[in-house]
Write a structure and sequence with these properties.
mainly alpha; two-stranded antiparallel ribbon; single chain; 274 residues; 2 strands
């Protein structure tokens, strides 16, 4: 049986698939950018439908979209710029720090920025924060699925060396040895995110207290990301004696936060008068 060579389809210079989808003069719209936008739109729409269960008007969730976009992109880009300042931005034009259409977003920063935006929006509109967070939680995983597909085409967040039949090849990554066979780790995470979305969407229908679905998202994604990080090959720095990636450290924090939220919200729900 002939080996499946996904890299033949998805190398940067392959004539079949190009990272750039559209060009307007010097502005290039990448497939990565399109995937992120699709994930945002689909995620927000599914969250707005889900929120009706908790008597939150779909329009209120739709209006949250602009806040999420600004907070999410700002947080994701800021995290990326800080993490890769020395390698990619030091001594270059400040314009490079905001050129998000070229890629360069870190999910954890986006999650932090979007969380802050949701808190501010819920206070401004007088909406129940934990009900809103529960409605959004499954859609975060769904949107992330689209984002990782974009990463796969873009060649970012690439994997470690792979000898399996489904290894992929990119012409210019990894930068120190371009063209080598790599784990399609972006697809691994995409598949796990869509599975997480399915589980959370079902759990939302049976949640026992407000905040439970959001807590389960943090717990679930913490496990997902910690696991796939073992196959990531794009980190220049590791921690704990080379054992842990930056993503695994962040995953541990995310899991711990989910556990704290779940315990706290469960205890508060138990104290409510019956």
């Amino acid at each position: 049986m002939e080996s499946l060579d996904l890299g033949h389809w998805l190398t940067y210079h392959d004539s079949t698939v190009d990272r750039v989808a559209l060009s307007f003069g010097s502005i290039k719209v990448t497939w990565y950018g399109i995937a992120v936008v699709c994930g945002f739109v689909v995620g927000l729409w599914t969250a707005s439908r889900r929120a009706m269960k908790d008597r939150i008007a779909p329009e209120a969730v739709a209006d949250l979209g602009l806040w999420l976009m600004i907070g999410g992109i700002a947080g994701a880009r800021l995290w990326y710029v800080v993490e890769y300042w020395k390698d990619e931005f030091a001594g270059r034009s400040l314009w490079e720090t905001v050129a998000v259409y070229r890629g360069g977003l870190v999910f954890y920063g986006g999650l932090a920025g979007a969380t802050l935006a949701t808190i501010l929006y819920s206070r401004k509109r007088g909406l129940p924060l934990w009900k809103l967070a529960d409605a959004l939680a499954p859609s975060i995983a769904l949107g992330h699925f689209f984002g990782r597909i974009g990463c796969f085409i873009n060649g970012c967040c690439y994997g470690t060396h792979c000898t399996l039949p489904w290894a992929v090849h990119y012409n210019d990554v990894p930068y120190d040895n371009p063209g080598q066979a790599l784990h399609p780790v972006q697809l691994y995470e995409a598949a796990l995110n869509i599975a997480l979305y399915s589980l959370l969407a079902r759990q939302y229908q049976r949640k026992r207290f407000d905040g439970e679905t959001f807590a389960f998202y943090l717990l679930g994604y913490g496990i997902v990301r910690f696991t796939v990080e073992f196959f990531r090959g794009d980190y220049a720095v590791h921690y704990l004696g080379g054992w842990a990636t930056p993503g695994q450290i962040a995953s541990f924090v995310l899991f711990a936060a989910g556990l704290v939220i779940w315990v706290n919200r469960k205890q508060l729900a138990g104290r409510k008068p019956q």
